[in-house]
Amino acid sequence: MKLTEFSVKNYRFTLIMFLGALTVGLFALFTMPRGEDPETHAPSYLITVVYPGASPADMEEQVAEPIENKLHELKNITKLTSDNYDGLSVIYIEYTFGVDTDEKFQEVTRVVNSVRNDLPKELAALQISQWSPLDVSIYQIGLISETMSWADLKNKADKLKDKLEKVQSIRNIKIWGLPEQEVRVELNLEKMAHHHIPANAVIGALQSEAVNIPGGSIAISNRKFNVKTSGNMKSADEVANTVILANGPKVVLLKDIASVTLQYENQTHITRQNGKRAIFITLNQKEGQNILSVEDEIEPVLADFSASLPPSVKFEKIFVQSESVKERLLRLGTDFSIAILLVLLTLLPLGGRASAVVMISIPLSLAIGLTLLNLFGFTINQLSIVGMIIALGLLVDDSIVVVENIERFLRSGSTPFEAAIKATSQISSAVVGCTILLILSFMPLVFLPGGAGDFIRSLPVAVISTVFASMLVSLTVVPFLASKLLVKHENPEGNIFLRALKRGISGSYSKVLDRSLLHPKTTLLIAGLIFVGAMALIPIVGTSLFPKSEKPMFMVNIRTPVGTNISATDSVTRYVESVLNKEPLIKSFSSNVGKGNPQVYYNVLQDNEAENIAEIFIQLQPVDPAEKNEIIDRLREELKFYPNAKIEVKDFEQGPPVEAPVAYRIFGENLDTLRKVAADIETILKETEGMIYVNNPVNIQPTDLKVAINKEKAGLLGVASSDVDLAVRMGVAGLPIGFIRNEKGDEHQIIVSLPKQGRTPDLSVFDQLYIGTMAGNSIPLKQVADVRMETSPNQIRHYLKQRYVTVSAFVKPGFNVAEKNSEIISKLENYNWPPEFTYQVGGEQESRDESFGGIGTIVLLTIFGFIGVLILEFKTFKSILIVLSVVPLGMVGAILMLLIFGETFSFTATIGMIALVGLEIKNSLLLVDFTNQLRLQGRTIEEAIRESGEIRFVPILLTTVTAIGGLLPLVIEYNQLYSPLALVLIGGLISSTFLARLVTPVMYKLLPPEVSEG
User: Fold this and answer.
1) How many other CB atoms are there within 10 angstroms of residue 503's CB atom?
2) Are 980 and 909 in contact (CB under 8 A)?
3) Which H helix or E strand runs over 39?
4) Which DSSP category does 286 fall into?
5) What CA–CA distance (Å, rounded) separates 400 from 397?
6) Which DSSP string corresponds to 728-765?
7) Please, which residues bridge with residue 905 across strands?
């Protein structure tokens, strides 16, 4: 090969080039962004619309449907859903993966803006956001105090926020659990009646004063001057002095007919840390940042701030993502060191000098692979490091084959210089072919569709980049080093380790091979029965998608009946806190009542605000996954019977977001029928063994108060329906009409309402409401409207514009999700579905279908790629069939290994099976190729088979053992995400190495291919 010859002859140039590659690789190692998980870019967007006082039906009709109709016209949409609640609509849109996420965000923004004029004018908020793993808080900080006022806590939090905003690598600093101040205008109806002032006049006067209209600019001589107008009101006193009525000398100010105060709003998000009153501060990092460098910037700021706090406030770093990143990187770094040591031990039979040449290829290959990974835009995270560790066991294969061949030439009398060039050139096509096969075997994982593919992609890219680099190194640097370092062995049979290995092979393998060749059909029959037996174990092994997270943290979700106020939900939360306080292994817990905990895990979004929900984020002392599961199970038992509340203890899970492992979407337009069908499906799930946390969101219909207007009477009295609605809004919730902005720049909303006797108004409020007529009089609300109770849906959901509801459940430990799913689906098939009602399977099965849905085409292309490489190598289809016969044999060991370790065919185990194919074929290719060479040298078929089996067993065994040595730390350290992949590869390599060494020779004897020169 010209490349090898050039590299050896111009060794100084080769040395400089690869020292440069090593330097660039080290630079990439120290400068690449580090994170816990890959930076995925899902084309998913949320549109959140807040319309206070609107029912789910109103939100559906007035908000969701106009937006959905426009969005549905867009291309490349895979999901379009809307969840409509009281006063809230959340619309989710997802495009096919691979589109430009920024461009699609602009597209969604344009569409929503185009429909804005068709939406109600009274919307309180309309926000468009893009889902991103960067939304995960890298820090969650608590300011804990039972005594400090809200104003002082806000002041402290704002100071910290101001300091953190100066750190360039972070973004989106938020304060949680702090009630906002508002200007509360409580109207005195008697005084208003005395002055003959209707509520509309008060509202109109305040709205006109709250508007800030810029004055523009004027020119004087050659200068321009901006004209400043009155601007925003700046204080509650200014609001109180607003002129409501001026009639000659009679001037009525707002304070004459209302109470105007600056006070805190009713708290809608209550936060506590370890049961104590607190507020939370979270921050996110910018894209492309190294989380460890970000920590170095933030820590001095936090240290200075915490030192400045008074004793009445406790500062606590609740969650710091970089701590788990450092721990994981340290653990994987240890695994890497162990893997290198194990690889070194497996190279002992090659001898010290040869092992040194092979070992030098490791840092060079890794450096080039890391550089390529950086150029492709990937980060250093748990999956890319795992990819490097997997590659570590594979990248020495090429170097071992090259060095072994060079030594063979040395033993035949060639000089080191000649041996390096001739031996490498002789085997270069096989090295390139084996590398291409390895790359092809990992290629389907690069092109996995959907969120799962995006999540896992850095792993196969790391393997491919490093293996490709190892091929370059083995054809350039390794020959050059071999020409300088290798010498002829004193013993032509090799060192003591190699001689012992050869004796072991000839004493065991050779005898078994002879028997197999005497009874070829029996050998194939036994191998076939072993394969069939292994396949029969697949149902016992079971399937799953992604495993639980191994991180020592989990969540408790609390749901009280719809309509429950926040005080009652808080009472349930305090009970759960009392239970958590008894658990000695719990390090801390963060309570959120009325809203979910700020996002601290990449696939768990923060729950929307609602008075009947609470969430407690729990962190444990360092424990293994088994201990964490015991704590979760114990808490589930203790909390499952709490009355009038659903308390769910849930672990975090790996992979793309899934609402629940088992979920079924039920479609139908009639809400009453939909509710009945959902109740039936809920019953089916509850009666299925192994189901927990069965959730039917429409099983309870809330009771609302309906203000029914008598249209005829209202028309006769000159009362507009909008005036009735306005009065009800003002009396019940308060009517927002503008903002004040103080000297510090803080905005406070102005709320006009009636005087309240307690935290929330009661039924007596309707007796106080008066409506203005066109004649200028005021009449009681009850004169034109009745207030009565009626039930209404608590939510209305759409999936691709169809009404639906999702009934879901979790699965108890010890039960297989896929099996339970199949059992429930068989029951659903026998269910008597109403006309025009259908169902769709969601949860893990849908996620699995999406993850592997488009892989069929990729696998087919890979198979034909394999065949193409083998055709170029052997030129005959018989040889291809012999080489491919090894594939089923690897599955035997993979299945048995999963069964022994109690693992299932998870997502990563499945991709391990795909990657295993290339490793198996590579070894088989070497055996068949050498057998063909021996036949060309004049051996008979049986002689060639026996000789190649014995001679090639050594390099095949060495490369297999080095691969297993590289993978073994991933099993020892044991991570539920990637250890199953390592188990599959190790088990498959073991079974294929030993079984294929018998099956491949037997297949060769039964189907001897034609051989020819060239």
Assistant:
1) 11
2) yes
3) none
4) P
5) 5
6) HHHHHT-EEEEEEE-TT--EEEEEEE---SSSS--TTH
7) 543
Name the region of 499 (left: φ>0; alpha: ψ -120 to 50; beta: rest): alpha
Q: What is the pLDDT of residues 105-164, one digit of tens each?
A: 999 999 999 998 889 887 878 989 887 766 789 999 999 999 999 989 999 999 999 999
Mind giving me the DSSP string for 348-385?
A: GGG-HHHHHHHHHHHHHHHHHHHHHHHHTT--B-HHHH
- Residue entry with tokens 């908020």: 125
What is the distance between the alpha carbons of residues 667 and 804, in angstroms, rounded to a whole number? 4
The DSSP code for 62 is: I
**For 33, which DSSP code?**
-
C-alpha–C-alpha distance, residues 594 and 566, integer Å: 6
3-state secondary structure 489-505: CCCCCCCHHHHHHHHHH
- β-bridge mates for residue 320, sequence order: 139
User: CA-to-CA distance for 540 and 562, rounded, in angstroms?
Assistant: 42
Strand-strand pairing, 586-593 and 613-620: antiparallel
pTM confidence score: 0.81
The two beta strands, 778-780 and 770-772, are antiparallel
For residues 472 and 365, what is the distance between their CA atoms, to the nearest angstrom? 8
The predicted-structure confidence for 924-970, as pLDDT tens digits, reads as follows: 887 888 788 888 888 888 888 888 887 777 777 777 888 888 788 88
Residue 267 CB partners (closer than 8 Å, separation 6+): 179, 566, 594
Residue 9 token pair: 């002859």
Strands 785-791 and 703-709, sheet pairing: antiparallel
Q: Which of 592, 594, 650 is nearest to 140 (CA)?
A: 592
Strands (E), 818-911: 838-841
The torsion of the CA quartet 591, 810, 457, 911, rounded to 10 degrees, works out to 150
CB neighbour list of residue 410: distance below 8 Å, 6 or more residues apart? 416, 419, 486, 487, 488, 489
Residue 918 near residue 467 (C-beta atoms within 8 A): no
Calculate the dihedral angle through the C-alpha atoms of 421, 423, 428, 433, rounding to the nearest 10 degrees: -170
pLDDT digits (tens, 9 = 90+) for 282-330: 999 888 788 888 999 999 999 999 999 999 999 999 999 888 888 877 7
Place of tokens 């006063």: 87
Question: CA-CA distance, 690 to 225, in Å (whole number)?
Answer: 75
What is the C-alpha to C-alpha distance for residues 982 and 963, in angstroms, rounded to an integer?
10
Tokens of 944: 């060639």
Q: What are phi and psi of 426, to 5 degrees?
A: -65, -35
291: part of which helix (H) or strand (E)? helix 291-307
Contact 269, 592 (CB under 8 A): yes
Backbone angles phi, psi at 272, to 5 degrees: -140, 150
Contact status, residue 475 vs residue 3, Cβ threshold 8 Å: yes
